[in-house]
Amino acid sequence: MVCFGILACGRAGVESIETAPPGLASSAPVVEVVAERVREGTISQRVFAPASLAARRASRIGAEVPGRIQEVFVRSGDRVDEGAALFRIDPEPYEAALRRAKAGLDLARAERKQIAVDLERRSALRSDGVGSQSDLDHAKTALAVARARERQAEEAVAMARLDLKRTLVVAPYAGSIAERFADEGTTALAQPQTIVVTIHETSELEARADVAERQQSVLRKGDPAWVHVDRLPEAIRAEVDSVADTIDPATRTYRVRVRVPNPDHRLRGGIFARVEIHPEPKAGVLLIPRDAVRSEAARTRVLVVRDGLAVAVPVSIGLVSETHAEVLSGLEAGMEVIVGKAAHELAPGMSVRIVAAPSGEAT
Fold this sequence. Notes:
Elements: H1 24-27, E1 31-37, E2 39-43, E3 47-55, E4 58-62, E5 67-72, E6 79-80, E7 85-89, H2 92-127, H3 133-166, E8 168-170, E9 175-180, E10 187-188, E11 195-200, E12 204-212, E13 224-228, E14 236-243, E15 253-261, E16 272-277, E17 282-289, E18 294-296, E19 299-306, E20 309-314, E21 316-320, E22 324-329, E23 336-339, H4 342-345, E24 352-354
Parallel strand pairs: 1-24
Antiparallel strand pairs: 1-23, 2-17, 3-12, 3-16, 4-11, 5-7, 5-10, 6-9, 7-8, 9-11, 12-15, 13-14, 13-16, 14-15, 17-22, 18-19, 19-20, 21-22
């Protein structure tokens, strides 16, 4: 439930009304008022919040395998594409390791083939009644072990090949190099990892806004949004990417993240912005003009016209647009509510007469 301005939210039925003492209305002058009927309609409430722009993704890129940094291909401020080379660890030790692993695989395959031939010979001898069953079983076990060693050697080759590939570190996504921490000749570690560069995604940024908790139920992922930046003449069309489920107990706000396209890289992380979010409208709700609502003594109420009198009715208000307010309880469709200055200046129980609104005044 959302209230606007200093309005307080309460719940009351239509039967809860305030009237003046008997006889007071008859002696009071009749005041001409403008009134509108409570009606069903559609309402949407725009949400405004300050925000700051930040990279949607920021990654600290370090060595995946230990070794001497042979070359760093980028500098701070460089823009890189996804897959672009960032730096290289000296590959020579890993090339040697791959050669050793391949040699080990060749040896394991040769041994397995030799044992397979021996098993075939022993099987033939056993079929001819020559040789023992234990010799045959031993040969079968030896072949199983040889096959396992061959698979182990294959895994060693695959790991050596992967380590060699990891000596060249590439950008995980398109972005810009925020900072470079190491130069050629530095001995890099994998554990703990030596960070060489930091990359920020720049083709798409994120506006992070903290929105008042009373508007939490209004916003949804995918809601259209506009991001306003002071130095840009036009707002940037964006979209709500996520809405936090938790409220910050200190600020009574929740975090909303808005995805902001930045294909021309004209925006930078850290820039202050203002977000304007347009949630999906609510249809089939009871509506009254916004200026019909008044707040007094921590109560939200309106003045309805009943039997020629202004009667105060407590109401509960939901969404509020620039012109109308959603009524959650307290009123029914067709009831006449006083609008304009009279809605805030009249005392309950005063005699009133409904007149047409002046020309050009909204009703």
